[in-house]
Amino acid sequence: MRRLIGTAAATAAALALALAAAQAAEPYKIAHVYGKTGPYEAYAKQSHVGLMMGIEYETGGTMEVNGRKIEVIEKDTQLKPDLGKTLLAEAYGDDDVTLAVGPVSSGVALAMLPVAQEYQKILLVEPAVADSITGSAWNRYVFRTGRNSSQDAISNAVALGDAGNCVATLAQDYAFGRDGIAAFKEALAKTKAKLVFEEYAPADTADFTAPAQRLFDALDKAEGCQRKLIWVLWAGKGNPLGKLKALNPESRGVALASGGNILAAMAAYKELPGMEGATYYYYEIPKNPVNDWLVKEHEKRFNAPPDFFTAGGMAAGIAVVDALKKAPSGDTEDLIKAMEGMEFMTPKGIMRFRKEDHQALQSMYAFKIKVDPAVAWGIPVLVRELKIDDMDIPIRNKR
Questions:
Q1: What is the CATH number of the domain that holds 321?
Q2: Structural domain count, the chain
Q3: pTM of the model as a whole
Q4: Are 230 and 222 in contact (CB under 8 A)?
Q5: What would the mean pLDDT of 222-235 be, rounded to a whole number?
Q6: Residue 223 to residues 164, 165, 192, 219, Cα–Cα distance (Å)
Q7: pLDDT score of 247 more than 50
């Protein structure tokens, strides 16, 4: 009898070990929930390429961590907030993913945040920008590798904040544009420049004649201006910079300014030599081994340099792998503990998840546009790197 009990115990222990080994071998499932189709399709493609390259880089090409494969499941929000919510719930519930990454649109991201809270699983936001994502709408399951509106705004305010500058703004009339201008206004108020007018236009605007006239009129009326500028904050199609340039702002004594963008959009910058602004990323600016690898491998695979959102996607992929290294269980609470305050290397250098709101603190780059006839876009030449400690990024959540 004693022998039978011992044999049964040994068998049970062996089965338990086998079950544990089988569970350990199961892949970590990551959902990439993003707008593969729609106006931001170019952004989405870059983001996904970057995500996969980030996982590849940080796993040394194995696409596995802790002896487990990383499986990425793609879901297309089509830039529809309700669909984004549904797909994220599907990923957490039906697919039982460890965590999710995305989306592209701020509007979709804001719709998805409550789903992360409901399922108590992490949503790593990349590249949606609106401050409210890690501000008023934030919950503890939300992290973001993408820059926020305040980081965009503060870096651009530094670039445009000289005494005597009068600035009017043009932005899209939705969360990205509204949050971005609010943050820019707050940041510019701390400089010697002044904001004189805000103009908002629908995201699908094609004719900028009427908005431009209102901007020109407002700058005409502004007093004490040594220099007049229109700062454009725009994502996706429409080419507002090109349309404004065609209206000959120089004849009104007005210069154009903007932040960085994808390379295709920066083709319009060729008409704006000397334009100032600040950018999240341009492949020639950061000098570090991660960016060196990204540039070399991307050019080898795609015969083109990595773009604005490729770098962001790669940062997200690296963050996922590093978090799983620190929290092999993949349990949400373990991941939150590991990720709060976590520093990780990216194509931009060090990023750090701030404990208070899970926003990734990171460098930004003030630039001036140079034109090279051999290059298809205006080249942002580094004027100054704004490092983590150079920018006082407000904490806007209610934690």
A1: 3.40.50.2300
A2: 2
A3: 0.89
A4: no
A5: 95
A6: 10, 11, 14, 8
A7: yes
